Structure formats: C-alpha cells, structure tokens
Amino acid sequence: MELVFGLEMMEVDCSRNIYALIKKLNLRGDEGPSEEGGLPKSGFLMVLLGIIFMKGNHAPGEEVWEFLSVLGVYTGRKHWIFGEPRKLITKDLVQKKYLKYHQVPNGDPLHYDFLWGPRAYVDFNKMKVLEVLAKFHDTVLTSFPDLYNKALRDQVERAGLRGTARAPTMAEASAPSRAKSYSSSHI
C-alpha cells in the first residue's frame, strides 16, 4: 500500500479492530501530484515512471493500462484513491508536466506512448525510481542490471561531470530494499 498508494495502515485500537490509513509517501511536500485535500498520488506516479523507465523511456499506453489493471486500476472505472485513472494520468499528470502522452506518428493502428515529462526529470531521478521498482518486486537494484547501469549514467549526467556521481556501492545495491518514507523533494 505504501509504494503504490502512499498509505500505511496503522492499528489504532486492537481491542476493537480499528485501523487508520496514514499518508506516508510525500515526494514533493505540498506540491506533489496529489489533489488538494486528497490522498497522495506520488507512489502511483513513481510506478508509472518505473514502467516508462523499464520500457526504454517510452511505454505504449496499452502496456501501461495492462500493468495498472494488475494493481486493480482500470481505465473508465473510478478508483477509490485515484478517481478516474485515465483523467489522472492523461490529463492531470500531463498538465502538471510529470508525464508526456503523445500519439505515435504513423502508428497503425493509432496508439499513444507515455514518457517522463520535464517536471519528472526535475523532481525525480532514475535511481530512486529503480529503488521503488526493486522494492515493489521485493528484490535488489542489481536484479535489473541494464536499468541499474542506465540509472547510474543518469546520476553521472545529473552531476554534470563524468564519474562524480555517488552511486550506491555493490553491497548497497545488492542489499534488500527496506521500507522507506520518502520526504525529500529530490527522491
């Protein structure tokens, strides 16, 4: 629940079986991709960015919706946290520039791809997205060697100088992912 929905269930009263959902994932403070007064959508966005990253930085819409259906998120069906997912993904997150959604030229049949938007590149990095993917799959970063190397290159490029990025050591990258509550604006 924490990774995708940004929520943690905490027991409030064990004798009466009362639980509360607590917001856990806050990637950008108050300016994240959540609705005013609504539940956080940062974890959901991290999953979307992860899908795009795994698919070579552009993911066919059909594959994104297929993956989301495994999570119980369906286009055209209102979700209790995200509302109408098609609107959230293709309108809200695109409008906030977290995602790009564009028609593939000369596609037959007509189809669309998702890409990271400019704000996603500012607010997130591929290593943190890979950490979320590893946690989601209950594995380690190095279980995705190609993605891990791409994430390392991304860190080097962000540092502006070749070889100066601080990459996780092999021991850190191979260590099991632990539950984290992200609060940094540069997750």
UniProtKB/TrEMBL annotation:
Residues 1-151 form the MAGE domain. Coiled coil: none annotated. Transmembrane segments: none annotated. GO terms for cellular component: nucleus. Residues 163-187 are annotated as: Disordered. Residues 173-187 have a biased composition (Low complexity). Pfam families: MAGE (PF01454). GO terms for biological process: negative regulation of transcription by RNA polymerase II. InterPro entries: MAGE, MAGE_WH1, MAGE_WH2, MHD_dom. This is MAGE domain-containing protein. It comes from Ovis ammon polii.
